[in-house]
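Go through this chain.

——
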Amino acid sequence: MSDCCTPKGYRKVFNEKSACKEAKNYRRKGLDATSRSIVDLLRNRGIGGRTVLEVGGGIGAVQIELLKAGAAKAVSVELTPTYEAVAAELISEAGLEHQVERRLMDFAENGQQVEPADIVVLNRVICCYPDMAKLAGVAADHARDVLVMTFPKETWWIRLVLSVANLGFRVARREFQVFVHSPKQIVATSERHGLRETINRSGFFWQMIALERVSSPV
């Protein structure tokens, strides 16, 4: 991992306070719009009996909703432990303790320790990792059927906003940075690992792409 982003840096940004805030919002309002679009996409595609792997899923709200929609099992991979206590509370409240496994690791570096899944989700994660090609490649290799990713759109004003945010991180001496990776390069990397793009949607800030295993039916 690049020196700009370390586990300590991630833990400072994605801390216990932010986990509690996200959980409070989820309990009150449900999923945010971007996460809801992922769940709706996968539910419409058919989720019954499938396995889910989510990298950087935080409190695990997407996993919980997919399990409620009929998925068989979910595995969550997180880089730091700051979300684990809150995630465990939400999983228990939903009665899904036996269907969720949570792991702590750098997925791009140690993905071989995790079994592939039918569905792999990276929701607002690839923009927080410096080595896009490695992370996208490992994620693609783990997707038996479909890979869904969301990340910032590549526009001048989004680059400006994130540049200002990154300046703030540097001033605060946070070992963290947000990246605007090229969507074309993200797709190209995933396709080199046997996937093909099937959906590409843009919202106000976030872009969502879905890629399927070439041998899978559309």
Observations:
- The mean pLDDT is 91.
- DSSP finds nine helices and seven strands in the chain.
- The CA atoms of residues 22 and 59 lie 7 Å apart.
